[in-house]
Amino acid sequence: MSVREQIEREIRQRGPMPFSRYMQICLYDPAHGYYSHNAEQFGKAGDFYTSSDVHAVFGRLLARQFDEIWQALDRPPQIEILELGPGRGLFARDVLDWSNKKFPGFYAALTYTLQESSPALQAKLRDSLRDHIGTGRTRVPEERPSLAQRFSAGEGGKDDQVPEGRPSGPSRTLTPETPLIVFANEFFDALPVEILSTHGKLHIALENNRLCETWLPPLAEEMEFLDRYSVHPEPGERIEVPILTQNWIQQIAHAIPSGVLLMIDYGYTRNQQLAGRHRGTLMAFRQHSASPDPYQAPGEQDLTAHVNFTALAAACAQSGMQVEKLRTQSQFLMGLGEKNQFADAFEDCRIPQERAKVALQLKHLVTPVGMGENFQVLIASRAIAPVKMTSLSGLSFGN
Q: pLDDT, tens digit, for every residue of 4-14?
């Protein structure tokens, strides 16, 4: 059964479907969801690419940052990195290879866990990271349960079920008291969102056997989210409400006994919304082309919404974490590379042409015309002295 057929069947059985449920099926259906049925959507030949696809220096610089965090934690004998949504594992491989080469003490203490719900991507991870898995440094646990299974079937079901959207939490592989670094690069932008307008909360219905939009009353917690962290939609506007993302971040914060959450994504603050920006960010991506139409190819296109950093920072602070000032990816990477003039990028270059190529790739990661200003970096910590946090290289640029 195709994604569209599954959506239509569920609407016939249960009535209009919240947009978050539609987005969840499109992206995470275990059989035919966008992230589930194949592992070829990543990279320049796929539908989109991330910083790790540009050059290994992204992982190398983050390895340097992770080593500094380990030192700020007084070099514990064990530390776990939990990467959420690791894709093909390029970033993990770069971090592990560079740590093994440059930071042997940190590497000896490290267990790198990759939390991935797609069976196809799990298989690819186990293949691409075979050597590090063999040494015991890397683990790819089976998701429990998958993101898709963590949703109910939708609102208005036989038992009037409401999708609770409560994740089971991060899938750690070491003991709960072990220091933890949670890393998420372009993870939260792909979690399902609700959409509100002046008409109410967006639902998907069927009319003459065709999908159509309808609006029903929103839940109280969705209106409260707008009051606290976002803006209320003006006529003609649509505003995303990422309740599931808030639940995820709360679970992550509580799972860190000591350590750091480091997330990179494209997003906005409430102040930017109040200034008239980022008011409606849902987009569909297919073969590097963007479209505002989320209904064009269910299950065959990526669906994303920008991240509300004001809400995420508040959730971390409410969970007792120390939240650092938001940085751009440009500021963060410049801080990491400034001390040694980005030697991590150029170490493998043997001829001038190779150095010129790497310089262009680095420029794409760092400069405003590339990815540098489009992505924001949120860092929150627990049980690390503030003076040690502010001394991290990634937080040093411009200070």
A: 999 999 999 99
